[in-house]
Each structure stands twice: as C-alpha cells, then as structure tokens.
Amino acid sequence: MAAALVPLHQDLSCPICLEIFSDPVMLTCGHSFCRTCLQKSWTQNPERECPVCRRRSSRENPPADLTLRNTCESYLQQQKKEEGSRSQGALCSLHFEKLNLFCVDDEKLVCGQCVTQDHQNHSFCSISKAAHSHQLHKETLHTQLENLEEKLKNVKNVKDISDAVAAHIKTQFQQTERKIREEFEKFYQFLRKEEEVRISDLRKEEEKKSQKMKKNIEDLDKQMKEISSRIKELQDKQKDDTMFLQDFRKTSQRAQYTMPDPKPDSEALIDVAKHLGNLSFNVWKKMKGLCTYYPVVLDPNTVNSSLSISADLSSVSLSTENPQLPDNPERMSVYEVALGSEGFSKGTHSWVVDVGDSEDWIIGVAEESVSRKERCTAVPENGFFCIWRWGSEFAAATSENLSEMIMGTSAPRLIRVTLFWKKGWVTFSNAENKTMSYTFRHTFTKKMYPYFYNNSNNPLKILSIPIAVKVKPKRHSTN
Fold it and tell me: From start to end of 182-227, where are the E strands?
C-alpha cells in the first residue's frame, strides 16, 4: 500500500517546497502551489510570474484549490493510518497478518499463512538473523541513500542558483535598457541640436540672399520706370514738330541713358551643396566627439560579487553596496576579479590600464579554462600571465612560490598590456614613457581573456583610445 502511495505523493507535492500541499491555490495557467510558498516567490518576483511556466498571473490573490486541498487531506489521513500500522509491526499485504519470518529462498518477509500456502519446503530464519546476515545490503542501501541525498543537495543548489539567475536577468534587463536609452538620448540631443544649427545657417543664408535679391529687383524696377518715362517723353515730342524742334537739345540729352546694363548675380542662389553635400557623413564625423571606444570592456557576468564596475564597463573597484549577484558558472567567485568581455585566440591586442592609487592589484591575461570557483595563484602554471603590486612591491607572478621583482622602477600609473597570441608573448610596459617592464613567453593554445584583480576602493580603469575618421580617395584610372 505504501508503494502505491509514492506516485500520489509526488502528484500532491508543491513544486516549490516539495512537500504535500498546504492551503493550495491555483493560478490561471493551471499550476498549483502552497499559498505561503507562492507569496514568498512573488515577494522576490513582483511581476507575479508562475514559478513553473513563468506566465504572468492576472490574479493578485489566487483562489483556493478546494479539490486539491481535500485530496491532500485524505492522503495525509491514509498516510497517518499506514504509519500507525507500521508502528505495530509490518503486515502481510495478502493476509494482513504480522510478518514474522524471513524466507531465505525467496528473500522476502512472510507471515504464517504465506508459509503454508506459497513457501512450502523453503528455508526460514528470524527477521533479526536475516537482518544481521544482510548487513552488507544495508550498507549498500545506506551508501545509495547518501548518494541520493547528495544529489538532491546538488540539484537544490543548482535550482537556487537558477532562481537567482532568473531574478538577476530581470535586473540586468532593466539596468541595460535604461543605459541604452540614456546613451541614445545623448545622440538624439546632439542630432536635434545639430539639426537646429544647420537649419539656422540655411535660414540665415536664405534671408541674406533674399534681401540682396529684393534690393536688386527694386533697383531694376527703378531703372525700368526711369527708362520707360524717357521713352514716353520722346514718343510724345515726336508727335509735335514745333515741340520737337524747340526742345531738341534737351530731348536728345534725355534720350542718352548712361547707366550700365545690369547683369544677373552669379552667386544669388542658396549654396545647397554646402548644406546637403555629404550631410550624414559630416554629422557622423562630428559625432565622434560623443563616442568613446575601449579596446577592452569588462564582462559583468564574471565580476566577483564584492566588486562593482562602472556603467561604461571600463573600470572596476571594491563595491560599497555589496550587490547580490548569482553564482553563475562564468563568475569569478573566490577572488576580487573581473574578466574582459572578449577572449582572444589570434592576433595582437593591446590596452592601457590606469591603476591610479590602488596598491593591491593584479593585471594581465588568463586562459578561458582557469579556475573560477576554487582558490589558486595567478601564475602561468595555472593559466595566468600577470604582474602585480602589493604595497611597495611590484613584480611579475612567475610561479607558485616565486615572483620576479621588477627592479629599477616603481609601479607606473599607466600600464600597457599587449598580447601577441601567435608569438606567445604578453608584454607589460609603462604607457607614459614606453619603457618595458616585463615579458612572458609561452605557447598559447587556449582563448585568453584580459584579467583584472583589484582589492581597493580606488578603481582600475581601462583607457579609451582616440577615434579618427579617415576618407581614402579613389584612384582614377588613366586608361
């Protein structure tokens, strides 16, 4: 009977606490949970999503699942009866008599009726003697039980991490969406201002040239009026010979109009090419002042929970807020470390780190496969190629028990890290005076990631590099 109840026990278990439902409620998606379990889940997830299918519930207070509650109560009552029976001793499922013997041939417990009906001529012994002889079986079962308990512990641990990851995804989305909108708002403001400036320049040119053209037209109108007046005067005097002869000298002078002939203005039109020519390119070229390019940016999914990184992913320092971050596989869980977002498996890559006033840092590169959940030293044999500073000491981490001091120089403020993947070199130099500090030589076979350890409130900052816009003219063929 107990075996028959096992599947039912699973069907009547809450997906959250894995216990028999207590005051079960049903969501609109059809899934049921203990009321208190669901309330705790929704406290962590204000979106009121179903913990199983992630569909959003339209009900803030889900109704009780009465049918399920009655079934659970009946099951618990039956289970209680079974436990009472077991306290009095195990009963035969066929004859409901006490199981008091162990059949050696069939390896099972039997009652008196079983012996006479189904186990004639078999060998029997007492239950205690059988239990003693089957101690090895008990040990095997105990080991299997421990394994199952350990597996349950591991599954629960992964589920806890998955729950934390699911909640963190929501936070990442909100923070990243807000930052994207902020960045695009900068572009919108720039473009709106640039549009206003360019339209203002166009309007000024239109007003200037329109005023000039208006004055030219007024001058031409005056000339036309003057010439027309003289033409009419001459025509009138030619009709009367007396007046013509009397005023000939004066009329002849009036007929001589000495103003030079006007010419159209060759620069009268708006210089459209100046306003529209390569407009988008010229605006884009000006936008480079808004753009910052970092050769390396940090990966927030790898940063240790005791650290914080800047919004532009370029600097890392000890956190003052102790953020709750999920222990996902990529995260550097043991040390105060963050990795670069991109790994390199070919080519040459270089970046400059401003170590500022930090006196406890390690920078360099690390193999993709380095340990992220266990303690290890940042040395080549563990997949790290780094230099470090601790107080006044400045050295290259060369082996587990030895660090090669970088003599003759104090730790520079700006350090250039250069990875020559094919050559197998990692070089460190003073970015201000270009003097070399140290070079690791190794044969790289794995993807290498920029590595940043900082145990200080003073940030390690990756410097941006200038952006240049160049136009390469086409060569015209002479053929």
Answer: none
* Both structure tokens of 128: 């205690």
Q: Report the pLDDT averaged over residues 225-240.
A: 77
Whole-angstrom distance, CA of residue 332 vs CA of residue 312: 20
Query: CB neighbours of 424 closer than 8 A, spacing ≥ 6?
Result: 441, 442, 443, 444
Mention every residue, 6+ apart, whose C-beta is less than 8 A from residue 253.
none
pTM of the entire predicted model: 0.63
Say how far apart CA 119 and CA 315 lie, in whole Å: 79
- Going by C-alpha positions, the residue among 330, 29, 277, 37 that lies closest to residue 168 is 330
Token pair in block for residue 414: 């700006």
C-alpha–C-alpha distance, residues 207 and 200, integer Å: 10
Q: Which of 56-65, 362-371, 429-438, 468-477 has the lowest mean pLDDT?
A: 468-477
Q: What SS3 class is residue 154?
A: helix
pLDDT at 249 over 70: no
Which residues neighbour 94 within 8 Å (Cβ) at sequence distance 6 or greater?
113, 114
Q: How many Å apart are CA 440 and CA 32, to the nearest integer?
A: 59
The percentage of residues in the chain with a pLDDT greater than 90, rounded to a whole number, is 43
